[in-house]
Specification:
GO molecular function: transferase activity
Keywords: Transferase
Largest sheet: 9 strands, mixed
Strand order of the largest sheet: 1-2-12-7-10-6-3-4-5
Shape: globular
Helix content: 40-55%
Organism: Halomonas kalidii
Number of helices: 15
Protein name: Glycosyl transferase
Structural class: alpha/beta
Distance between the termini: 54 Å
Strand content: 5-15%
Length: 406
């Protein structure tokens, strides 16, 4: 049963009915006169060769209200960047590609590094951070949305629903998070959210009490979704992780900077599927193994800023508490799958939980052993205070790359 309700923490727009796309887009065209809209697409070059992105570009090309599309391109050499320029030339909207591995952006990154302001590691967070700097410099968008480039079930109605709450001129939302059911090909997906984040948040609440921050995170239906929109000025003041902790980091920062009355979540689609990360049990640097480590560390860092004290003994207790809660949830998910005619492998689910439980300890050790670690990328407000003209020089470098001067 679909509903609309205010859960007391963030407003939840759960569709009673699916408004026709033509109506949504007509509204957004009107809204764009007052609040122009920009879209950020963080992409690996490999995604240009994957099964999803060509269709995504075809759909975005039909969107009538976008002021600009900004593509952050990672892991691309010169020939691949030139191919990307041709690939994205199908977009009729004003669009620019940030060639993050190109000499111009690398030179700016080296300048930031010399001042202690550069992202410390490659990843989605770094890609998004540079795109955010470009969007601010271009000043084409008052509202900015972001989504992943591996969505196999993409349609432009998802983008319209994502923009709508923040772009509406009579609403005062600063930030909107997207959610959707994680079901595809008869399977229950979304393992990291279901099997790690939900039981971890509940274990932390058991140990440290119902902290407002934990209650807030637990109120999101899908906290790890890669789809969100926000007012452009939100990008100025947030500090985000460079790694897989990006989504948790963004949710944490908007909670720190804004009243929860200015935050919302929206139901984007009836079906959603994307590239599934392998568990990578033997490789802690990739897949769900790496993702779970980064997410746990992001949560520990944010809780430390809330005054929570951690210890080695506390992390062992957290692991045991999490493990029991996660196993109980597997049973509930299994029953839910059977009731809805879906498949769920309980053995694989329990193996994933065992990996996540071990990673809670591993992330805890990393947190305790590196008290001087700088995991968050500085806010663009800080960068502009230190190097006032850097956003403009970033925009100039992007223009020169896209004009063919490579």
């Amino acid at each position: 049963m679909s509903d609309f309700h205010q859960n007391g923490i963030v407003t939840d727009f759960h569709n009673l009915t699916r408004r026709p796309l033509v109506e949504l887009e007509a509204d957004l065209v009107r809204f764009s006169a007052r609040r122009p809209m920009s879209l950020i697409l963080p992409s690996l070059f490999s995604e240009l060769e994957g099964p999803a992105l060509a269709h995504i570009v075809d759909e975005i090309a039909r969107v009538p209200y976008l002021a600009e599309v900004v593509i952050g391109l990672d892991r691309a050499d010169r020939g691949q960047f030139l191919h990307a320029r041709e690939f994205f030339s199908a977009l009729p909207q004003h669009h620019r590609i940030l060639w993050n591995d190109g000499p111009r952006l690398r030179a700016l990154d080296a300048e930031l590094e010399a001042r202690g302001l550069a992202p410390q590691q490659p990843g989605k967070g770094r890609n998004v951070w540079y795109c955010a700097g470009y969007v601010q410099a271009s000043q084409r968008g008052a509202v900015v949305a972001l989504h992943d480039c591996d969505i196999l079930t993409y349609d432009r109605g998802m983008l319209a629903r994502l923009f709508f709450p923040v772009a509406h001129p009579h609403f005062n939302y600063e930030f909107c998070k997207g959610y959707y059911p994680r079901i595809a090909e008869g399977r229950l997906n979304g393992r990291v959210s279901r099997l790690m984040v939900t039981p971890l948040l509940r274990a932390l609440k058991k140990m440290h009490g119902p902290l407002p921050y934990l209650e807030y995170l637990d109120s999101y239906r899908y906290p790890l979704s890669g789809e969100f929109s926000m007012r452009a000025e939100v990008l100025d003041g947030i500090r985000i992780p460079a790694d897989w902790g990006l989504e948790i980091g963004v949710l944490s920062e908007v909670h720190r900077n804004y009243s929860t009355k200015r935050l919302c979540q929206v139901d984007l689609a009836d079906a959603y599927d994307h590239k599934h990360q392998p568990v990578s049990e033997e490789d802690a640097s990739s897949g769900l193994n790496r993702m779970s480590l980064d997410i746990a560390k992001a949560l520990y860092r944010k809780l430390a800023t809330q005054g929570v004290t951690f210890s080695a003994e506390g992390f062992r207790t957290l692991k045991a508490t999490y493990y029991r809660l996660a196993l109980d949830l597997i049973k509930a998910y299994d029953h839910d799958a059977v009731m809805n005619g879906l498949s769920l492998d309980r053995h694989d689910e329990e193996r994933a939980v065992e990996l996540f439980a071990a990673n809670l300890l591993e992330a805890g050790s990393a947190f305790l052993d590196n008290p001087g670690e700088r995991p968050f990328i500085p806010s663009w407000n800080r960068v502009k205070a230190a190097i006032p003209d850097l956003p403009e020089r970033l925009a100039e470098a992007v223009e020169r790359d896209n004009a063919g001067q490579v």
